[in-house]
Write a structure and sequence with these properties.
single chain; alpha+beta; Arc Repressor Mutant, subunit A; Dna Ligase, domain 1; 2 domains; three-stranded mixed β-sheet; 6 helices; about 45% helix; about 15% strand; globular; DNA-binding transcription factor activity; WH-like_DNA-bd_sf
């Protein structure tokens, strides 16, 4: 995982972005964390190591990572935005009880995009799909 973080940081350096310890920590946390955290969750997790870091610093860095194409913002209605450093083609299953989000892939959805392009003449730029249900942990309780 460290090499993924390092290559992402190298990519940022080529665009003239200075790599601060906070930027490194935010990106590493996002890449290691599979829970699709909110900005506040990232802030709370890193605050003990960076007591002078503000929530605004986290938001500003997330915005910069999004502009660089390294992070996606997930907005699901009522809850805060969540952030995902997995920018590959994938989709999400969301627990209706606890809000947990898990990734899943389904390659044949590319066929849906292709069919949509052929039947409408649109150039499809992306596909967002969420499935809703109850996660394993919540089913038990």
């Amino acid at each position: 995982m460290a090499t993924r973080v390092q290559s992402a940081l190298e990519q940022l350096k080529t665009t003239g972005v200075r790599i601060t310890p906070q930027r490194h920590a935010i990106l590493a946390y996002l890449m290691d964390c599979m829970s699709h955290p909110t900005a506040d969750e990232i802030y709370r997790a890193l605050e003990p190591k960076f007591p002078s870091m503000s929530v605004a610093t986290v938001y500003n860095n997330l915005k910069m990572f999004m502009e660089a194409g390294m992070v996606h913002e997930l907005t699901y209605g009522d809850s805060s935005s969540r952030f995902d450093a997995n920018v590959s083609d994938h989709y999400h299953v969301i627990c209706e009880k606890c809000g947990k989000i898990e990734d899943f892939s389904y390659p044949s959805l590319a066929d849906v995009e292709h069919t949509a392009e052929e039947s409408t003449g649109f150039q499809v730029k992306g596909l967002r799909m969420e499935l809703y249900g109850i996660c394993k942990s919540c089913k038990v309780h």
